[in-house]
Design a protein that fits this description.
By secondary structure, the chain is mainly α. About 75% of the residues lie in helices and about 5% in strands.
């Protein structure tokens, strides 16, 4: 709706924008809660030490995996909320971004089956004679690589979807353009390329991860602005998309 050269932002868009911001924070919170006991806190441990901990902490391990699964579900809700916010800018691009981000949610959640397999293999450590240490380590590494490939594929889809969402945010002027520009490059293009590099060079994962930090900062800045509230109007000159 035009208001003296400006386009009104509806209450529905403002509500869904707040939900998008909350879901982004929920994603990072759940991801951190799930990865800390199973991955971050295990850094530097030998395979035997990790297996002993996992075998003795199966309920905690499963709760952590459920939290990570919840993070991927939060990404799916975030994607739909972003579609509602940005469809008035360009419906076709918003639909494409939604499909890509939902694809990331589905693939990422599906990859959790490999991490669940890893937990079950660690549980086998408590059964003497079932596997040798070398056999169990080989199986765990194979399941971990499967999970990693699934997550990297999800990140590629997520990066492409983010690039489109931030492009629409740039056009809409719902948030400052420097945030949208940082998000387009950092959360979109860079994360997609970084994830593709991880796919090809899995031995470089730890070195490549810091490249994604600008995208995380853009996501956080966008989420804070969304929760604070969209402007009540945006300039009509930003360009109206197809409907």
């Amino acid at each position: 709706m035009s208001e003296g050269g400006a386009v009104a932002v509806t209450n529905e868009q403002r509500s869904w924008a707040r939900l998008a911001g909350v879901m982004m924070f929920a994603n990072y919170l759940l991801q951190g809660l799930g990865d800390y006991p199973t991955i971050i806190a295990r850094t530097g441990e030998t395979f035997v030490e990790r297996a002993q901990w996992a075998a003795a902490s199966q309920p905690l391990y499963r709760i952590a995996l459920l939290e990570v699964t919840g993070a991927w579900l939060a990404i799916g809700v975030f994607a739909f909320a972003m579609y509602v916010v940005l469809a008035p800018v360009d419906k076709r691009l918003a639909q494409l971004a939604l499909v890509l981000r939902l694809g990331a949610s589905f693939v990422g959640a599906s990859a959790m089956m490999f991490r669940t397999m890893e937990a079950r293999l660690f549980a086998a450590w408590a059964t003497p004679g079932l596997f040798t240490t070398e056999q169990l380590e080989a199986l765990v590494l194979a399941s971990r690589r499967g999970a990693g490939v699934g997550i990297q594929t999800a990140w590629i889809l997520q990066g492409l979807g983010s690039a489109l969402f931030f492009l629409l945010l740039w056009r809409s002027r719902y948030i400052p353009r420097w945030v949208a520009g940082l998000g387009f490059v950092g959360s979109g293009v860079v994360i997609a390329l970084m994830s593709a590099a991880m796919f090809v060079f899995p031995e470089r994962i730890n070195q490549l991860k810091p490249i994604g930090l600008p995208g995380v900062l853009a996501d956080v800045a966008m989420s804070v602005l969304f929760i604070k509230g969209l402007p009540r109007a945006r300039t009509g000159a930003a360009g109206e998309g197809s409907s």
